[in-house]
Amino acid sequence: MRLTINLLTIILVAALVITGSILLTREIYPLPQVLTLTKYQKNLPKAGKMAEIELEAKKLSTGVTRVTDEMMRFEGIVSQKEINGKEKTAWLVFKLPTAEFENAARTLEQIGGLRHSRLTTEDKTDVHMKLQTQLESLQSSTARLTSTSAGTGEKLPDMLQIENKLKCTEREMGEIKGKIERLEDQMAYGLIFIRMYEKKILPLSYESAFQKSINNACQDGLDNCINIIGIIVFWILSSLPLLTVILLLWLITFLFQIRDKWRKPPSKKDSNLAAPLIVKEDKPEIEAGVGSNIES
Length: 296
What we know:
9 helices; 62% helix; alpha+beta; five-stranded mixed β-sheet; Alpha-Beta Plaits
C-alpha cells in the first residue's frame, strides 16, 4: 500500500512539472514562431534609416536581377542575399547612402507586386553629440593629467596614480571613439530589407463563392489539425525522458511488491488450513477369549 502511494505521488509531481514546463515554454518560445523564424530575423543590423519591403514577382530570378540593378543605380551594396529555389523565396539586404535612401525605397515600391512596405527613421544626432561631449571631456582630462605628470615635484606614488588614471582615461576614449565611428556609419548609410516571392499561377477555373468558402474552411481546418498534431508530438518527445523514468520507477516498485509477496512467511491460520487431515480407521477388536473359545 505504501509503495502504491509513493508511486502515485511521483506521477503527480511529474504531471505538475510537465504542466509547468509547458506553460512556461509556451510563453517564452511559442511554437509557431520557433518554426517560422529565419536566421536573418534574429540579429538584424541597425541603421539610421531602415525599410522593409515585400515584393511578388512572376519569376523569382528575374525579379531579383531587376531589384539588384535598381539598387546599384543608387550606389547600393548587397549586404546579405539568400535565394531558396524550393520555396521560391528570396531575402536581400542592401546598404546604400542616406542621401539616396528615400529615392531607392520609392523606386522599389513602384516596381510592382508590392505586398508590404514600412520605413523607419531614427534620429541619432543627440546621441552623437553626447558621445562627442564625453570624448572632449576625456581629452581635456588627459591633457591635464599629462601636464601634471610632467612636473618635477611629484612623488613616486603620485606619479603611479596619475599613470593609472591616464590609462583608464585612454581606454574610455578608445571605447567612445569606436561608438562614434559605428554611429557615424549608421547615420551615413541606410538599410533596405527585401523579401521576394514568386507569384503562383493558378489554372483558370470557375469556382462559386460558396465552394470557395468551403474549400478555404477545409484547408484551415486541415492546417489547424496539422498544427495541433505537431504540438502534441513536440510535447510528447519533450517529455519522453521523464515518462521513461516514471515507467522505470513503476516497474521497480512492482518488482519489489512481487519479491515481498514471495518472501513473506505464511501465517498460522494458513498453516492450519494447509495441514493434511489424518483419518483414523476403526478396526474391529477381537477379544482373545472369544477366539480361543471358537478354536476349542
